[in-house]
Amino acid sequence: MQPSAPLTPIVWNGAGWSGGSRCSAQGPVLGRAPIPANLVVPTSTSNYSFAVLMTDGQTVVQGQPLARCTTGGAATALHLSTPANLYTDGTLGAHGGSGMSSLGGAIRLGELVPGAPPIRHALKVDLDGAADYWPVGFRWPATKEDGYGPQRYGGQVPALKMGALLALPASLNLASLNLQTAPGRMIAWTLQNYGAYCVDDAARSVFSIATELGPAGAVTTQFQQGWGYPFSSGVKDSPWAKDIATIVANLAVVDNNSPASIGGGGTPRQPYAPPFSAVGTVAAVTALAANTAVPIRSPSISCPARSSSRSGIAHATKSASAAPLAPRAIGTEYSAAVAARPPTPPTTNSSRTDAAPWRRSISQPNRPIADSVTNA
Prior knowledge:
Layout: E1 7-12, E2 29-34, E3 50-53, E4 59-64, E5 75-77, E6 79-80, E7 84-85, E8 123-127, H1 149-152, E9 165-167, H2 182-193, E10 196-201, E11 207-214, E12 217-218, H3 219-227, H4 239-249, E13 252-254, E14 265-268, E15 285-290, E16 305-306, H5 316-319, E17 328-339, E18 348-351, E19 354-357, H6 358-361, E20 367-375
Parallel strand pairs: 1-5, 3-17, 8-10, 11-17, 11-20, 16-18, 17-20
Antiparallel strand pairs: 1-2, 3-4, 4-6, 4-7, 8-11, 9-10, 9-13, 11-12, 13-19, 14-18, 15-17, 15-20
């Protein structure tokens, strides 16, 4: 978003995820942010978390769920989180299921197109809480789980709580997966080297991957134009969807991810991104990200994974009785983020413990692919 964009009111709307319209103002003004007049975010039941980088180039305003149903009109949201600073760790934000950043983890424009370099930051995903998340508690860097979690979450693996870091095991030879598409191989590389954080409940049987959508364009549009098939897809609708199903069946929880061993213990598999340059006023860019998060200078979102030097698969015996994942579609879920530039990516570490193999932790591995869009 440009600093000259109109300072737009963000007004309270209580529809949330009830299915009611998010379009109308139903309460007080929660805050104001510079939002381009042409950015329209229709009403939905998706999570639509958003992050807005203010004109000082540092302050990040986040909230959920965003709607802006008419060109130039007011935006609406159910809540805003405490403003963050782009130059701090960037861990926390407005994802209602986890308290994690709305910005970090989304796939940005230009990151998943032909010829693009590897995505060098952790991703973020929404899983189906009823099938995947352990009912009690959450894990770092999440600060909470959904209030209904104890009653509605139904996962089989204690390690797979809200906030969990998922990754392809370091010992896995990616060539052995026989992935058929270039974007599938790109995602697999990132999931082995950086992983993906669980930030919200998709509340449906999909794998929801956060991506960017905004005035500058949409990752999903770029994806279809570049590769010839849709990002959001049914289980067997395309080679891409089949690749994602294969990847998901091999994911594991990095059980030793913590503030003391970010990405797992040991040596990072990839170098850390350089720090931001000197603080200054930055022209922000407003965009929507579909359940992908933007890499941000954050221990949770930015740190590289560690290459596992141990074979420890914690909770494997506890998860062994879980049924294989059933097919699910690939989908997108929208959230909004306004960022001047991508923040710092983390990687996983060489001594990480890949805890619970996803194929044993989730009862339905093959699901549609969904795009959880972040309004950025």
